[in-house]
Design goal:
By secondary structure, this protein is mainly β. It has one helix at 5-10, and strands spanning 21-22, 28-31, 36-41, 44-45, 53-54. Strands 1, 2, 3, 4 and 5 form a five-stranded antiparallel sheet that branches. It starts with a helix and ends in an 11-residue tail after the last strand.
Length: 65
Amino acid sequence: MPFRPEVLEILACPQCHGKLELRTDESAFDCRKCRVAYPVEKGIPVFLIDEAIPATGDGGDDRSA
């Protein structure tokens, strides 16, 4: 299920309160300021600071499958 644009506009990083960007594949929300990504698992964003993963420059994440 795609995220509604009006909801995407109000989301903020839990750590720095900066703007989050949804990846085109909707797998995670990236915070460029903190350089972390908050994963989307089974369609549900996980906005827990302890669950954030280091963001990579290619739009992917560093987790191994």
